[in-house]
Write a structure and sequence with these properties.
The complex is a heterodimer. Chain A is of the alpha+beta class. Helices cover 54% and strands 17% of the residues of chain A. The N and C termini of chain A lie far apart (68 Å). By secondary structure, chain B is mainly beta. Chain B is built from 4 helices and 19 strands. Chain B starts with 7 loop residues before the first strand and ends with a strand. Classes of the chains: A alpha+beta, B mainly beta. Chains A and B meet through helix 2, strand 1, strand 2, strand 3 and helix 5 of A and strand 1, strand 2, strand 5, helix 1 and strand 6 of B. Strand 3 of chain A pairs parallel with strand 6 (67-69) of chain B.
């Protein structure tokens, strides 16, 4: 039985594609994370990488899958684990490069609802953000804003975005 | 912007402020500055709307017909009434040792005619009203009757500088001017020669020292 020979070159290419491809997700995710100082330059790099990631992760994924398929019969059983791991990592990075996980942590307010000040059950000492335009006066409790972070609204005809 | 309404969503964290994107163009904006930093609208600036950060009780007295944002049903449990204490425990992404204040000291940050200054909140609450000159203009920072809300005003009406003092014996920070006229927390005179006139409100921002200092490298600090 003729044994197919695995290619060292294919392994190197596979490894490079997995590393480069998954970096497209990990670099921005690493830079844009809590408790880490972001300089303007680092942030610019992160956003640039993120812009290209959606497309190039797919390319890298196709490449790694093709190489894995080609190598599959040519390598030993235990080496197939590496191929599978590489493809999985690349697939995960491809998916995550398209996800906005910040909105998983802090659900957005789809459509802000309001209640009259007489009905609102807030303590007198609770802090709010107050915006008034013309005769339209609105309060955004900080307790709520500290979770949702952003509310798009229209106050007295003026479109505003309340942020905290 | 330019006649077009933008709708924003949370897209990233940014030195403990955040990044947002608009659905209409996908541009990335910085919350702290309102500036577009990446994408089709890069370089554009959102206008800061006049706003107040104050206690519900005070606001309720001022706005009888007001409306309050309702809680979002499924997220209500995640709202944390102790958020400020929780956040105070978190590490800061950048600190400025050797500067006048500690990282998590709360200040009211004010910019007037290009000059930036941080007013420690504790100082304002103890010494209200605080009169100062910033960027060549007279400013006054006042604590509200609740002992926690702060407003900042340009203490000048029609070229006349208004000098404000704490009404003697007042426990709720009531204000009087040099002629004995009384002023309320909205910055309006309710008695005396200036009755009916109001001082223009300035955009003071309540912030942590580390954050204010990070975005205003040449800020000064109010010292009494």
């Amino acid at each position: 039985m003729r044994e197919l020979k695995s290619s060292g070159f294919a392994w190197i290419l596979f490894g490079m594609l997995v590393i480069a491809g998954s970096s497209l997700f990990f670099i921005p995710a690493f830079i844009i994370r809590p408790f880490r100082y972001q300089s303007a330059r680092a942030l610019g790099l992160a956003l640039l990488t993120r812009e290209y990631a959606a497309f190039w992760t797919v390319i890298a994924l196709c490449g790694t899958v093709a190489l894995a398929v080609w190598q599959w019969k040519r390598v030993r059983r235990w080496q197939r684990l590496w191929l599978a791991a590489g493809v999985l990592l690349m697939a995960g990075s491809t998916v995550m490069a398209r996800m906005n996980y910040f909105e998983w942590m802090f659900h957005p307010v789809a459509q802000p609802g309001f209640e009259a000040v007489t009905q609102a059950k807030l303590d007198a000492g609770e802090m709010i953000l107050a915006v008034s335009v013309g005769r339209d006066a609105r309060a955004y409790p900080i307790r709520e804003m500290a979770y949702h972070h952003i509310v798009n609204d229209v106050v007295g005809g003026l479109p505003v975005t309340v942020t905290y | 912007m330019g006649g077009r309404v933008l709708h924003f969503y949370l897209a990233g964290i940014n030195n403990q402020n955040f990044l947002m994107r608009d659905r209409e163009t996908g541009t990335w904006w910085q919350q702290i500055s309102g500036k577009a930093i990446y994408g089709p609208m890069k370089g554009a600036s959102l206008e800061l709307a006049p706003f107040d950060e104050l206690s519900f009780g005070l606001w309720k007295k001022e706005s009888h017909d007001g409306q309050v944002l309702a809680a979002v049903g499924r997220d209500q449990k995640k709202y944390d009434s102790k958020w400020e204490e929780e956040v105070a425990k978190l590490p800061v992404p950048v600190s400025f040792p050797g500067t006048a204040l500690k990282s998590r000291d709360v200040v009211i940050g004010l910019v007037s005619a290009g000059e930036a200054r941080a007013y420690p909140l504790d100082t304002i609450l103890k010494q209200s009203p605080i009169e100062d000159r910033l960027g060549g203009r007279p400013v006054v920072l006042v604590a509200g009757p609740d002992g926690k809300s702060v407003r900042t005003f340009l203490s000048r009406i029609e070229d006349k500088d208004i000098e404000l003092f704490r009404k003697s014996g007042s426990e709720d920070f009531a204000l009087v001017d040099a002629e004995g006229g009384e002023w309320n927390f909205k910055g309006c005179a309710v008695s005396g020669p200036e009755t009916g006139k109001c001082m223009p409100e300035l955009a003071g921002i309540k912030d942590y020292w580390f954050d204010w200092r990070n975005y205003h490298a040449d800020t000064t600090v109010y010292r009494r």
